[in-house]
Design goal:
The complex is a heterodimer of chains A (466) and B (195).
Chain A lengths: L2 H17 L8 H7 L7 E3 L2 E2 L1 H8 L9 H4 L5 E2 L17 E2 L5 E12 L6 E15 L4 E12 L2 E15 L2 E8 L16 H4 L6 E7 L7 E8 L10 E11 L4 E11 L12 E13 L18 E24 L7 E25 L2 E12 L9 E15 L2 E12 L9 E14 L2 E10 L9 E9 L1
Chain B lengths: L7 H9 L5 E10 L9 E4 L14 E6 L2 E3 L2 E5 L3 E6 L5 E4 L9 E5 L4 E5 L4 E6 L7 E7 L4 E3 L5 E8 L1 E8 L6 E7 L2 E3 L2 E3 L2
Parallel strand pairs in B: 1-16, 1-17, 3-6, 5-11
Antiparallel strand pairs in B: 1-13, 2-12, 2-14, 3-4, 6-9, 7-8, 10-11, 14-15
The chains are: A mainly beta (466), B mainly beta (195).
Chain lengths: 466, 195
């Protein structure tokens, strides 16, 4: 294996370790802490309901100052409150969870992919160890280590964030950040939200270098990308300032976030930092911070409300394409020589978009539109604009039976590979919540555009947590 | 606005040489946002023109199984509190509060106790420098009319002469509240305290 290939492989593995991890929301550690069901916070795990959002917006604490009253496992004190009076001559008091705040989530799949032989059991697909909790009144944390099957190889991913919560409605999160507005990790399907999946940077370029033996003027060498290619759905290392507040009468309200992130990789791919912002307002329903009036329909999956938001992201990506080829040397008797090629592609881009989230009785309809504008993602001097959107409807027939239908389109003004300019995605699914922490999902992942046909995927997902 | 107590009934009783009528004040304190409503101190605030001699009897706070017991101890100003160590390890008692002169009694072994006299009204935090998680409170109040709530928030102040008083409620974690209460025989008053 060449050194370039080794670097590519190890780099890809490291990047995968980070980027395949997801900030899952299903944390049975919190069920133990509060001795409450998963459905307190989840319409169907990992999708959050109104209370789960308020819990998150309060820094992983119960809303309306009820954290202490709701906590059944009293935390272990690392210093009593009185030590605040001693500061700076004493450590500021804190606490740790009474039991190790760990939880386990397992995901298994049965796959059937059209026109391939890659059918069968994928047991397990993913094994996650999740952690979440509070460290005293003003710090909280979230972490995850996951092992995931990726083409019959076990890959490791991780998430870690420490959050400073100076006020219930104001937070500074340092660590793994989700920059996109609708959390991809909290989706009900195996299929990702299609607008988040789009990459404008190719996985390889064909580079030309002088031919050492002169048989042809140049050699064409296929060069793979050494850095991770930017994609909206990836978690990123960074710092995020964010918060929320209730609207009038304690209903609905505002959520907002400002952040600075690497853009690419745990150690970043360039010296530039990416920045983003998002803001959303929820009309009606349970308060974003909680504590107001109860929802109109007292069911854990209902919250009659309408939310609309805007977001923007500005970034710079740097991708190094590296490849090599072995050819005959031009000098007599010199034999074979290895010829390498490398190109660094710098690209500035921005993403702008809008989201909505409508809850009405047993229906939840939500979606997102975004436009991504890349200056030069392929090193060809050609810019690319990408328009992508999706809409998903989740209908709760029973609290244990949910129908999901998602449609999305991704359009680029320059074709990528064999794909057309517009890709159309359809994801129908049926979610059976057998228990609050055991779930089965029947799902189809379909492409409706002509070049995408014949690649449909059908799967049964088995998901449980404890 | 602070309400001054009215002692007309008391004054009249003293003037005519008959025993002062004494009743009680009881009720419930609801501590919003906490698991229970224990450890609130309900007490009658300073009564104009009235002073109470410091009691001779000492009160006691034990340190046992690395916990202060009781967690909240109300006392009359001037009371001496003995701090006993019942654990087989060293303990310390100190207070960071100025109203308790930021006393530090040092460390002492099992079976021994050290004392401090609370000379002025004070909600004194008690800490142990050896075990930072330990915490308790001595609440020194200006009258001998006080009680501590149980988990249900119930309290009862007995032998309280009839009159109108400013009754205060103090809690380690919640904001203090106060109200004018008229006592004539057995009176009741409920309170709600929150952050």
């Amino acid at each position: 294996m060449s050194s370039a290939t080794t670097r590519l492989t190890s780099g890809a593995l490291l990047l995968f370790m980070f980027f395949c991890a997801v900030d899952a929301g299903a944390i049975p550690a919190w069920s133990r802490k509060y001795e409450t069901s998963c459905s307190t916070c989840h319409a169907a795990f990992p999708k959050l309901n109104y209370f789960g959002n308020a819990f998150r917006n309060n820094g992983y604490r119960f809303p309306a100052g009820l954290e202490e009253a709701a906590t059944k496992q009293q935390p272990v004190s690392l210093g009593s409150e009185g030590y605040k009076k001693m500061f700076p001559d004493a450590l500021w008091p804190s606490h740790i969870p009474a039991s190790v705040p760990l939880a386990v989530r397992g995901i298994m799949r049965v796959n059937s992919i059209e026109n391939t032989t890659a059918d069968g059991f994928e047991f397990p697909h993913e094994f996650e160890i999740l952690a979440g909790g509070t460290l005293g009144d003003t710090f909280s944390f979230f972490g995850e280590v996951e092992i995931e099957n990726e083409d019959n190889e076990n890959e490791v991913g991780m998430v870690l964030a420490l959050q400073y919560d100076p006020r219930p409605n104001l937070h500074v999160r340092v660590g793994t950040i989700q920059v996109h507005p609708i959390p991809d990790a909290l989706r009900l399907t195996a299929a990702h939200y299609s607008p988040y999946d789009t990459r404008t940077t190719p996985s390889s370029l064909t580079l030309t270098v002088p031919n050492p033996n002169g048989s042809t003027p140049t050699l064409a060498i296929k060069a793979g990308v050494e850095e991770d290619r930017w994609r909206f759905r990836e978690d990123q290392p960074g710092v995020q300032l964010w918060g929320a507040r209730n609207g009038a009468g304690g209903n609905g309200g505002l959520t907002w976030a400002l952040g600075v992130v690497n853009g690419q990789g745990l150690g970043d791919a360039n010296s530039e930092k990416d920045v983003y912002a998002r803001v959303a307002y929820k009309f009606g329903g349970y308060g974003e911070m909680g504590g107001g009036e109860s929802p109109q329909n007292t069911q854990f999956w209902r919250d009659d409300s309408f939310k609309v938001g805007l977001f923007g992201y500005q970034g710079s990506s740097t991708n190094t394409f590296v490849g090599s080829s072995t050819v005959l040397s031009g000098a007599a008797g010199s034999g074979l020589v290895q010829v390498s090629a490398e190109r660094v592609v710098d690209n500035d881009f921005d993403v702008m978009g809008a989201e909505f989230d409508w809850w009405f009785k047993d229906l939840n309809l939500f979606g997102l539109y975004l436009r991504q504008s890349d200056d030069d993602p392929r090193g060809t001097g050609v810019s690319i604009d990408t328009d992508a959107w999706f809409v998903e409807g989740d209908y709760t027939f029973y609290p244990w039976l949910i129908g999901v239908l998602r449609y999305g389109e991704t359009s680029q003004d320059l074709a990528v590979g064999a794909d057309p300019e517009t890709q159309e995605f359809l994801v129908p699914a049926v979610v059976l919540v057998a228990r609050a922490n055991v779930k089965f999902t029947l799902e189809a992942q379909m492409r409706l555009d002509d070049p995408g046909k014949g690649q449909d995927r059908y799967l049964l997902g088995i998901d449980f947590a404890f | 606005m602070r309400t001054m107590p009215t002692l007309s009934v008391v004054a009249l009783s003293v003037a005519v040489g008959v025993p002062v009528l004494a009743g009680s004040l009881a009720g419930t304190v609801r501590a919003t946002g906490l698991r229970d409503s224990a450890n609130a101190v309900v007490y009658v605030d300073q009564i104009a023109g009235k002073t109470f001699p410091a009691p001779q009897r000492h009160e006691q706070v034990d340190q046992k199984n690395m916990v202060f017991d009781p967690h909240v101890l109300p006392v009359l100003v001037g009371t001496t509190v003995d701090f006993l160590n019942s654990d087989a390890l060293l303990h310390n008692v100190f207070s960071p509060d100025k109203c308790a002169e930021r006393f530090n009694l040092g460390s002492w072994p099992r079976g021994e106790s050290r004392s401090y006299t609370f000379k002025q009204p004070c909600a004194a935090t008690l800490l142990c420098s050896v075990h930072p998680e330990m915490e308790a409170f001595v609440v020194a109040v200006p009258t001998p009319y006080y009680a501590v709530t149980d988990k249900a928030g119930a309290y009862a102040i007995k032998d309280l002469p009839d009159g109108t008083y400013t009754v205060k409620v103090w809690h380690p974690k919640l904001k203090e509240t106060s109200r004018a209460i008229t006592v004539a025989g057995d009176a009741t008053a409920d309170f709600e305290i929150k952050k």
